[in-house]
Write a structure and sequence with these properties.
By secondary structure, this protein is mainly alpha-helical. Helix 1 crosses helix 2, helix 5 packs antiparallel against helix 6 and helix 7 packs antiparallel against helix 8. It is rod-shaped, with a radius of gyration of 37 Å.
Length: 186
């Protein structure tokens, strides 16, 4: 604090009712506080590197959090049934995986057969069960035309779907049997 500013402050303090001694002590205190604030600013200037790092770290943390959330959603979606809100995520990841690794279609086909069976066991709506069956039929037809088709996988699917057909209502049971006949997976 400059000398002139201290004198003005002392005058104002005296005009406010402070004694000469109090005004002197308070103006010195104001001067000391100003010095402390300047030292704090100097310390902040020295901390420019951590501020820069924080500007890099915070967005990086959001990216990492986003990736972790995405992995969690993808892994949760793998267990989703067709009547779940996560099922579209499962289908998207399955389709992407098949594009990268065509042999994965066998796994998807078996998963869809299991899902049809699970929907029947849980007494899900006919619409959900028939939609899952349509997914299975489409995937199985594509898989059957592939040169690497594994008929053991078809036998597995047939056993799961026959189990579903036996536990389903007559309309859904006929649809399941019709799908199996159209694929001729015996």
């Amino acid at each position: 604090m400059k000398r002139h500013e201290q004198q003005v402050l002392r005058k104002e303090l005296r005009a406010s009712g402070a004694t000469a001694q109090e005004a002197g002590q308070l103006s010195r205190l104001a001067h000391d506080l100003r010095l402390l604030r300047q030292e704090g600013q100097d310390a902040n200037d020295k901390n420019l590197l951590p501020l820069t790092l924080r500007r890099l770290i915070v967005p990086s943390l959001y990216i990492v959090l986003g990736v972790i959330t995405g992995v969690f959603v993808l892994s949760s979606a793998q267990a989703a049934l067709p009547n779940s809100w996560l099922f579209p995520v499962q289908k998207f990841s399955d389709n992407l995986t098949v594009r990268l690794y065509p042999q994965y279609r066998e796994t998807i086909m078996m998963k869809r057969a299991d899902q049809v069976n699970e929907l029947v066991a849980r007494r899900a709506s006919d619409r959900a069960t028939l939609d899952a069956l349509a997914d299975y039929t489409e995937i199985a037809a594509e898989y059957k035309s592939a040169p690497h088709a594994n008929y053991a996988a078809f036998r597995y699917c047939k056993s799961r779907l026959m189990q579903a057909a036996n536990g389903a209502n007559p309309e859904v049971g006929r649809a399941i049997r019709g799908s199996l006949e159209s694929l001729d997976t015996t």
